[in-house]
Amino acid sequence: MAWTYLVLAGLLEIGWAIGLKYTDGFTRLVPSVLTGLSMVASVLLLGLGLKTLPVGTGYAVWTGIGTVGTAILGIYLLGEPATAMRLACIGLIVAGILGLKLAAS
């Protein structure tokens, strides 16, 4: 169950990271509220996952999911560049997440 909490926390981290772009400096109410709720829920789920997972592994996986997801959505939604180097680095982060998952099993 800890890994489920961690993955959900990572997905919510993507939500609040992308949400920050739409808050317009926290001047737009609905995006700001949704972003804030995503932040709180993400950290709460991370905390639940860390009850049984090692903190280094859990935190690295959480931030890794957030980083990869945010970078991909930045490319897809926000028109950020999808250079070969950028995609290769995203692949390295995914490899690191998988390695940490395997090492914690």
Automatic annotation (TrEMBL):
It comes from Microvirga aerophila. Coiled coil: none annotated. SUPFAM superfamilies: Multidrug resistance efflux transporter EmrE. One of its GO terms (molecular function) is transmembrane transporter activity. The keyword Transferase does not apply. Keywords: Cell membrane, Membrane, Transmembrane, Transmembrane helix, Transport. One of its GO terms (biological process) is xenobiotic detoxification by transmembrane export across the plasma membrane. Belongs to the drug/metabolite transporter (DMT) superfamily. Small multidrug resistance (SMR) (TC 2.A.7.1) family. Gdx/SugE subfamily. This is Guanidinium exporter.
